[in-house]
């Protein structure tokens, strides 16, 4: 698919490579943290600094997954949320959400200073804007709701953007950074504080024993506490795969044109969503723009979304060439509040964090702090808000069908993938440009749904619970923990 720009995230391209070794022997730890994203490393940092023995097990490389591929706005302004939270949960719980996220903004900035993390941190105002005059009342209502919870919020007649807007909500003194650099720095700080970190270590099972046993390949770790910081939990008594919905966004980074930067972080409240901020790579400033959301694995032509987004940018914002483009995924929860904390009463000592609704930089940091407090037996005010066992509609996740079924291997274009039927089985075939055919089972190893080809990132994406696999079937994103099974074509 001929799309402009490098198919990679600009933050990751600028982050130092890490080289922690993989788990090579079994052992014990007080706390095992599975996943070195913002949740896992925030919890690890707090615990390691408190002198607790922490072991972090990361399936891939640090900083290169959901956190590293976000737009990395560090803010308590989550588009329009506070009016909704007050209506749904009442003022007290809504105030806890504001407090958790505003505290997390400050804590991230503090940790960056304490640990001397070079990650392009900048203080910026956050804006939610509308281009529709009739939606200005929504902005005014949200400002009133946010102020009633103790947040600073101001209504503007328009947003400071290079195109016409009809109103904006401004939260002052929020922040933005390079999230991949931040996680690499936070991991180093965890190690300096006595924590152990293993990369290339995919956990395949978490089972209750006298304590918990965490298994990764041929080795295991026995632990008092286990934190499932895997974006969607891979184990445990609560079926978060049914309680959450995976959703993707596309993101593009354009070369900034001289003298044409925007000052602030912006998200519109209209559809389709656009979110804008400045960033930088080794060559200079970038305009980073996020496009509309879609259910993971339920769009058979993701490349089209990049073309649409570029058209929108060309019509609205001065921008140079496309430098980078990528797809990222997160999980929505039914009530727009994440599920965080100990899985009581069924699984004491097992902690989860998921359903960040695209706002897991601040919520994910607050999640790590909450879990660390729970492990240390300290009261945490946000536990009541995030309670992972709270009542939630079952089957919020509707599942989905593969969008890549095709008649025959011959019908699959070179450079692309498709799913063919062979007897009762479905086979996923990717034809690389060098003429090689990569053939794997199309059944997701999580629960068997048939994957969809993502023609922009060249991945197999599961329409049920969001697992993503490389073109040759390796796991990129869970909840799957095993690769797609290799298959052969009769003609091979
Ligand atoms: C396009 C997009 C833009 C976003 N922008 C923002 C934003 O501007 N501001 C904001 O607040 N939020 C934003 N978010 C949301 C935010 O990025 C996420 O909610 C947050 O980063 C999730 O953090 P995490 O630690 O759960 O996940 P991750 O960062 O993915 O960390 C989970 C880690 O667990 C590892 N793992 C998974 N399975 C296993 C296993 N079996 N064994 C070992 N390790 C495993 C993974 O490899 C990964 O490193 C955005 C989301 C998207 C999709
Ligand atoms: S992620 Fe659950 S079936 Fe694929």
General description of the model:
There is one protein chain. The chain is α+β, with helices and mostly antiparallel strands. Among the domains are: 7-70 and 180-243 and 335-386, FAD/NAD(P)-binding domain (3-Layer(bba) Sandwich), CATH 3.50.50; 409-477, Rieske [2Fe-2S] iron-sulphur domain (Rieske Iron-sulfur Protein), CATH 2.102.10.10. 23% of the residues lie in helices and 30% in strands. It has ten helices and 25 strands. The protein has helices spanning 10-13, 38-49, 82-89, 91-114, 136-148, 179-192, 240-243, 302-316, 360-375, 383-386, and strands at 6-7, 27-34, 54-57, 73-74, 122-130, 154-156, 167-176, 196-198, 205-208, 212-216, 219-228, 245-255, 265-268, 275-281, 284-295, 322-332, 339-343, 347-354, 417-422, 425-431, 437-441, 452-454, 459-461, 468-470, 475-477. Strands 1, 4, 5, 6, 7, 12, 13, 14, 15 and 16 form a ten-stranded mixed sheet that branches. A hairpin with a 3-residue loop joins strand 9 (205-208) and strand 10 (212-216). Helix 2 packs parallel to helix 9 (360-375). The chain binds flavin-adenine dinucleotide and FE2/S2 (inorganic) cluster.
């Amino acid at each position: 698919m001929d799309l402009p720009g490098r198919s990679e995230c600009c933050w990751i391209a600028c982050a130092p490579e890490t080289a922690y070794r993989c788990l090579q022997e079994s052992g014990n730890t007080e706390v095992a943290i599975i996943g070195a994203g913002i949740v896992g490393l925030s919890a690890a940092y707090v615990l390691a600094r408190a002198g607790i023995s922490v072991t972090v097990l990361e399936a891939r490389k640090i900083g290169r997954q959901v956190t590293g591929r976000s737009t990395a706005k560090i803010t308590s302004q989550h588009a329009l949320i506070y009016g909704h939270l007050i209506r749904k949960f009442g003022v007290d719980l809504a105030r806890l959400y504001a407090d958790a996220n505003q505290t997390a903004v400050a804590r991230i900035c503090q940790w960056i200073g304490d640990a001397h993390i070079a990650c392009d941190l900048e203080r910026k105002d956050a804006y939610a804007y509308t281009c529709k005059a009739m939606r200005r009342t929504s902005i005014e209502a949200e400002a009133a709701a946010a102020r009633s919870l103790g947040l600073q919020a101001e209504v503007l007649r328009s947003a400071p953007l290079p195109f016409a807007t009809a109103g904006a909500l401004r939260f002052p003194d929020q922040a933005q950074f390079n999230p991949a650099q931040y996680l690499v720095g936070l991991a180093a700080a965890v190690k300096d504080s006595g924590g152990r970190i293993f990369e290339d270590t995919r956990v395949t099972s978490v089972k209750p024993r006298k304590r918990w046993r965490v298994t990764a390949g041929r080795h295991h770790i026995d632990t008092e506490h286990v934190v499932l910081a895997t974006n969607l939990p891979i184990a445990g008594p609560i079926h978060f795969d049914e309680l959450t919905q995976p959703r993707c966004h596309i993101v593009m980074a354009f070369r900034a044109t001289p003298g044409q930067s925007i000052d602030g972080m912006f998200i519109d409240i209209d559809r389709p969503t656009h979110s804008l901020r400045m960033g930088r790579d080794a060559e200079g400033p970038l305009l980073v723009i996020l496009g509309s959301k879609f259910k993971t694995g339920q769009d058979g032509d993701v490349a089209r979304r990049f073309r649409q987004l570029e058209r929108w940018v060309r019509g609205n914002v001065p921008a140079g060439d496309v430098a980078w483009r990528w797809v990222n995924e997160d999980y929505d929860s039914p009530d727009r509040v994440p599920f965080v904390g100990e899985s009581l009463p069924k699984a004491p000592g097992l902690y989860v964090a998921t359903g960040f609704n695209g706002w897991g930089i601040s919520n994910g940091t607050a999640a790590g702090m909450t879990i660390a407090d729970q492990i240390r037996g300290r009261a945490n005010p946000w536990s009541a808000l995030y309670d992972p066992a709270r009542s939630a509609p079952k089957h919020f996740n509707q599942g989905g069908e593969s969008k890549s079924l095709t008649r025959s291997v011959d019908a699959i274009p070179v450079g692309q993938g498709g799913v063919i039927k062979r007897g009762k089985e479905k086979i996923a075939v990717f034809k690389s440009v060098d003429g090689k055919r990569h053939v794997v089972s199309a059944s997701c190893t999580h629960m068997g749904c048939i994957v969809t080809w993502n023609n922009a990132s060249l991945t197999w994406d599961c329409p049920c619970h969001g697992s993503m696999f490389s073109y040759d079937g390796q796991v990129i994103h869970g909840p799957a923990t095993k690769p797609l099974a290799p298959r052969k074509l009769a003609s091979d």
